[in-house]
TrEMBL record:
It comes from the Bacteria. This is UDP-2,3-diacylglucosamine pyrophosphatase LpxI. PANTHER family: BLL4848 PROTEIN, LPXI FAMILY PROTEIN. Gene3D superfamilies: 3.40.140.80, 3.40.50.20. InterPro entries: LpxI, LpxI_C, LpxI_C_sf, LpxI_N. Residues 6-133 form the LpxI N-terminal domain. Pfam families: LpxI_C, LpxI_N. Residues 139-268 form the LpxI C-terminal domain. It comes from Muricoccus roseus.
Length: 286
């Protein structure tokens, strides 16, 4: 029996290609919609692909139906466009009308609306973690370096800050050094936040990047992603380490991340945020 292909809607970065490689390894056929300006068509040579601009959702859905795909993986880096630059085709205009004002809300609101719209169109949105082994980490230390007391305090402070940001559907990360919030993540993304933190670094022990899942965030479709570029940015910013939510982040090229971090003496720590907050309130070590 022929298996229906999975549809990879590919933005930029390495993650869409890793999902494609995982599909090949498991013998799962796939097709890919490459988002113009983000995915690189040359990297998908020989595959069955359609390259579209973001506003051509109607064309993409028609093509996916014709391909036989029903499951859709939304994966990769995409910068959210302004509505005026979108130039929606007829199918996209129909979707936008269905989504309504949620198109102008935060990322969580928009993604929830996109999920529902895709389901209404007969598709099943699924997350990239289904295809990637070791993409998520249980609680624990991944590196030789470990956080000291100052870093643990900064992690707890970062958790409180990121949770406040997340409650407002703003961002997933913050950089804290010696109790001071150097930078918080908004629409610019983690890399730009780390670059800003590098310019604001203070003397003394390095700070910590904290990345968490936002309250109400779709854990199937929209987990935070960390990769070698994140580690490189943290090293350049003079940070002591990165703390991320256990089983709440996608690790792109985990082995390379650990190798980079070990070479620089940076720690990578998968955390249960509630455990760290609770430890701070009781005075216990985490």
């Amino acid at each position: 029996m022929n298996q229906a292909p999975v549809a990879i809607v590919a933005g930029g970065g390495a993650m869409p290609l890793r999902v494609a490689a995982a599909c090949r390894a498991m013998g799962r056929p796939f097709v890919a919609v490459l988002l113009e300006g983000f995915a690189k068509p040359a990297e998908w040579a020989g595959e069955r692909t359609l390259t579209i601009r973001l506003g051509a959702a109607g064309q993409a859905l028609d093509w996916l139906r014709a391909s036989g795909a029903r499951q859709i993986v939304l994966v990769g880096d995409v910068r959210r466009p302004s509505f005026l630059s979108l130039r929606p085709d007829a199918g996209a205009a129909k979707l936008i009308a269905r989504i309504g004002m949620r198109a102008f809300g935060g990322d969580d609101s928009l993604l929830s609306a996109i999920r529902q719209a895709l389901q209404d169109e007969g598709f099943e949105p699924i997350g990239p973690a289904r295809f990637l082994n070791q993409a998520q980490s249980p609680p624990g230390l991944l590196t030789r370096a470990a956080p000291d007391a100052t870093a643990l305090t900064d992690i707890r402070r970062g958790i409180l800050v990121v949770r406040a940001l997340g409650a407002a559907d703003v961002g997933q990360g913050a950089v804290v050094q010696q109790g001071l919030v150097l930078a918080v993540e908004a629409i610019e993304g983690t890399d730009a936040m780390l670059a800003r933190a590098r310019e604001l670094r203070r003397e003394g022990p390095g700070g910590v990047l904290v990345k968490l899942v936002k309250p109400g965030q779709d854990r199937e479709l929209d987990l935070p992603a960390l990769g070698p570029r994140t580690v490189a940015g943290a090293i350049a910013a003079g940070l002591a380490g990165i703390a991320f939510e256990a089983e709440g982040a996608l690790l792109v090229d985990r082995e390379r991340m650990v190798e980079q971090a070990d070479s620089a003496g940076l720690f990578l720590l998968a955390i249960r945020p509630d455990d760290h907050v609770r430890a701070a309130s009781t005075g216990a070590a985490t």
